[in-house]
Amino acid sequence: MNNFKGKLIICIYFSYITLGFTQSSLERVSVSLNNFINEKGHILVFRGLNTSDPDKLESQGHWNKSYFKEIKKWGANIVRFPVHPTTWTKRGKKNYLKLLDDGIKWAEELGLYVIIDWHSIGNLQTEMYQHDMYDTTLKQTYDFWRTIAVKYGKNTTVAFYELFNEPTTYNNTLGTADWETWKTLNEEIITIVRANGGEGIPLVAGFNWAYDLTPIINNPIHAEGIAYVSHPYPEKREKPWEDAWTADWGFVKETYPVILTEIGFCGPEDIGQHHPVIGDESYGDAITNYCDEKEISYVVWVFDPNWAPRLFENWNYTPSRHGKYFKKKLQSYNYN
User: Fold this and answer.
1) Between β-strands 43-44 and 35-37, what pairing exists: parallel, antiparallel or unpaired?
2) What average pLDDT does range 26-54 have in this prediction?
3) Helix axes 65-73, 93-109, angle to 10 degrees
4) How far is CA 169 from its chain centroid?
5) CA dihedral (35, 113, 137, 277) positive or negative
6) 195 with 150: CB under 8 angstroms?
7) Which of 56, 78, 92, 170 is most buried (CB neighbours < 10 A)?
8) 7-21, 128-142, 282-296: lowest mean pLDDT where?
């Protein structure tokens, strides 16, 4: 976020019987042309939810299986874990991995795939960030992904590695950045991931807080088996959004898989409202219809009552306005 932060669509979590999933095994997801596929070659389109940072949830007593059961109940087939560099540092590698172990286990038992997200916002090239909570270094970033690759590289539940959440120069207040250098950094991380046994799919974001993928036209990432990320929040472009989305990031789906790892909206009166997420149900209709038509995967932000746009208002999981919309939408993908 900005200032603060005729093909078969398979809803995996609803498909234990048809696809032969068991509680202890999910099939490896891989890339085929511009799609995600399972081991049988079926196209997979993901519809999921973001958790808040596992460190936050655990400290508040909510990092537990019942939280994941609710995510499943809402209709998700994938869940994204945003790991802030500062909480990774504070808790320590060994203890934070215990959190991820538990979350991955609960997700697997419920048939949910996992995205592990290195949740920083800022300029990795200058190592300047939008807030202290996002502070990291190139060395720490490389080491994080080496650790994840070694620990979870063979784990088929951990389907995706989101290498860096939201690259931005924040209008050059965090220094300058160029695509060629960003491309090289991502290729280096991917090399480290692969060399350390990481078999999941690396996800690469573009600038403008993970919105702009236009450099892909002439200079794509030089690596196999990857996908691209965008976070097209409502205020990134004016209505009607569709032509701008196609020009800015949607065109990538013609050649590579695309996953929107954050979407969502807040009303201007909602708790936590901030730019660029101010919007309403018309945005929800536009982005979900766009994704459904083009078979683009998406993950809604955020399954927490404190962060925004919040999907529920309290720990009884009472849906917010934003939550009511996306809960109904995600549950509509039940093909049983």
Assistant:
1) antiparallel
2) 98
3) 40
4) 21
5) positive
6) no
7) 78
8) 7-21
Give the tokens for residue 303.
Answer: 């399954």
Structure tokens at 289: 């219809």
Residues in the chain: 336
Dist. CA 24–CA 251, nearest whole Å: 37
Pairing of strands 297-303, 201-205: unpaired
Q: Which residues contact 170 (CB under 8 A, 6 or more apart)?
A: 122, 123, 130
pLDDT score, position 25: 79
Do residues 79 and 114 make contact, with C-beta atoms less than 8 angstroms apart? yes
The total of other beta-carbon atoms located within 10 Å of residue 101's CB is: 13
For residue 281 the two structure tokens come to 């149900």
Token digits for 62? 């909510």
Nearest-angstrom CA–CA distance, 307 and 309? 6
Helix axes 138-152, 179-195, angle to 10 degrees: 30
Name the CA radius of gyration of the chain, rounded.
18
At how many degrees (to 10) do helices 138-152 and 93-109 cross?
Answer: 40
pTM of the model: 0.93
Look up tokens 């909510």; give the residue.
62
Cβ atoms 323, 310 nearer than 8 A: yes
Which of the residue ranges 9-13, 89-93, 307-311 would you say has the lowest mean pLDDT? Answer: 9-13
